Amino acid sequence: MTITESDATRTDRLDPVTFEVLKNAFATSVDLMSEQILRTCYSFVIYSRDFSSALCDAEGNTVMQGSGDIAVHVGTLHFQCKAVIEQFGDDIHPGDVFAINDPYRGGTHFNDVSFIRPIFADGRIIAFSQNKGHWADIGGVVPGSFYVNAVDHFGEGLRITPVRIWSKGVFLHDVAQLLVSNTRAPEQAMGDLHAQSEATAVCEREVLRLVHRYGTDTVTAAMTETQDYVERTVLRRLEGLPKGTWETADYIDLDPGKGEGLVPIRIKLTLDGSGIHYDLNGSAEAVETFLNSGYGTTFSAIYAGTKTFFPEVPLNSGFYAAVTADIGPEGTVVNAGWPHAVTGFCSGPYEKIMNAIFEIWSQIMPERAMACAFNLEYLLVGGRDARDDGKPYFMWYDWMAGGWGGRATKDGSGATAPVFGPGLAVQPLEGQERLSPVLTSVHQIAVDSGGPGRFRGGCGIEKGGMLTDAEATVMSYCCDRARSITWGIEGGLPSIPHGVWLNRGTPEERFLGSNFSSVPIEPGDSFVRPSAGGGGFGDPLERDPDAVLEDVIDGYVSVERAEADYGVVVIVRDRELDDIVLDEDATASARDHIRAARRGWLDESPEAIAERYRSGELGMLDVIRRHGVILDWGSGELFPNSTAQYRELLERRSARHWH
């Protein structure tokens, strides 16, 4: 298929000016929903921008998403709109509003609740407006509803199949009360329910304003044409790219039901001139934890990962039409199906798929290449707030910024929202402390967290807290990459492992890992965890020594890791004055030594490396970056299967590119 410049900008039924005006007006109508929800939501989580909105056409196809939506909701909103249409058919009326959170019908996870409103003109449905927001709790075993040990959805919370909340403008209070009463914060949930519904009404008013001005037929034609325009634009962009097939894999840390060993997610991409085609067959079976993905979120990861390399193209179902995917049979980690647990998809397959896609497109578009980004993580502390006489439930629900991968021409972005949702805001510490009995003790750049490379990965964050006045409190953590550590490409090195430390530096110190639920904690207990940085791009020994020196001065890289990872020797003459200088002769010698020795480091006995770690002779970053060995970072126990897999990946992505 050959597409000309005029094809990519043509409109069949509209003059170009009207088309452009309406296309941008659709985007504005969605962004107005976002502004409404920010001003009226009750949940601190939603206020921190864990929500998205969309305008869909009469068939449920996405016409436009907002400019500030989070990536994880991309590619799922139209599935949920179509589920409502399928469920209710002709029984949809003006003034109706529907709710759905069902991940087995194209949703994300149970916490993400969507409200969908039909928009009528001339006696017929012409569109649907939708807002999806993350409720802080949706029931289930633990506060916050992130139960890592869940093996089916019954331990995760309330499943909302398409249900009517407003009927012809009449609020069905009994139905709404049934939903919110299954949460630990019913008043908050009811407030968000009304806020989200009202946001969809804002979009409805805006679309009807356009209908009044341009007419129903013109507006609906523009909805169709906006999708066609995006599809044509993507196909035209593909004409200048090479054709072929590329493959890679990324990994989840483990399947508790099968013992130690990384869990593969396999991605194949084909460009054949007719579109972008993905194949995820060969991915592992569903895991016995909540780190599975339903079909909606897998498609979302595919669309979001691909869209990263086409940033200028608007996002709607036209983009989805240009991208096809075979995600394999139901029952896999990327297509789990009912009743597999899926709440942790965001830390499991989702970002693994995105980063694998980044790796493939980095080969197709090397000028936009980027190494692996840090993994999304959620830390939840929940119990009864003893600061209040009524001791209400509280959910301290926290996520962190981290580092994105080093790029083809520059360092990765540091202290940045996850690729899961670049629009996510870092939650204000003062707001968290007011709402929950958790005191933040540290929140700072994590030194040495950026993966070493010719272009360094962005830095992650270290955040710590302490429980104060609380009762019956438990901690849960949804993350990954304590073993499948954030990786570099083109010779770059990995970042650091994720994981939570409880009471670090005390006799009660415990490493809890990167996925756990229902760990009891008491007032006075402290906890700390880092977010990883991004992986490095290119051989670290090719990084400009002056750039390493600046990293040391800025506190991004320690003096010790500057020499160990980059072979750059610096002398600190006065730290307070930043009087730190480069030792050029020692640097040349150190780099020669690393070049001669580093391949041999990857061949050393994993058992011997583990023993040297346990004795304190080797630090964690030497174990990971020099020797490619994966351990329990608390006890030092060797994971032989994970180590073998990790060394293979390190050889392919890093060592084979070293000169």
From TrEMBL:
One of its GO terms (cellular component) is cytosol. Pfam families: Hydantoinase_B. InterPro entries: Hydantoinase_B (IPR003692), Oxoprolinase-like (IPR045079). GO terms for molecular function: 5-oxoprolinase (ATP-hydrolyzing) activity. GO terms for biological process: glutathione metabolic process. Residues 15-540 form the Hydantoinase B/oxoprolinase domain. This is Hydantoinase B/oxoprolinase family protein. It comes from Pseudoclavibacter chungangensis. The lineage of its organism: Bacteria, Bacillati, Actinomycetota, Actinomycetes, Micrococcales.
